[in-house]
Amino acid sequence: MALSLEYDTAMFPTQLSSFKVSTRVQLGAGLLLIVALLVKVWLRIEITDYGYELARQRQQMIELDRTERSLHFDLNSLTKRDKLESLARPLGLRPTEPSQVWKVS
């Protein structure tokens, strides 16, 4: 059984000029191509915008982390007993007496 590589010339014309495409099909294909290109450009712009937004959010997160560390440091330094006493003395404050402390349950 031999395989024949011959083809029917009626199904596959040898000249491109004999293959005619209607104007509607050409316009439709052109319009489809333009729409596809516009969608591609729009998606590229959206991706770029999201990239810039992500970079801004990352920078804001870094700044917030830095602020949080600074606030924790300030809180730790200001709640130390000797620091509180040194800040309270110029204001005329003194440590409480045991009789001044009330326990609330």
Write the topology of this structure.
Blueprint lengths: L22 H56 L2 H8 L17
- CA-based gyration radius: 40 Å
Global mean pLDDT:
86
Percent of residues in beta strands?
under 5%
Total DSSP helices: 2
Roughly how much helix do the residues carry, as a percent range?
55-70%
Structural class of the helix and strand makeup? mainly alpha
Number of strands: 0
- Which runs of at least 5 residues are low in confidence (pLDDT < 50)? none
What is the straight-line distance between the termini?
A: 102 Å
The oligomeric state of the chains shown is single chain
Largest sheet data: none
What overall form do the CA principal axes indicate?
Answer: rod-shaped
What's the helix-strand series? HH
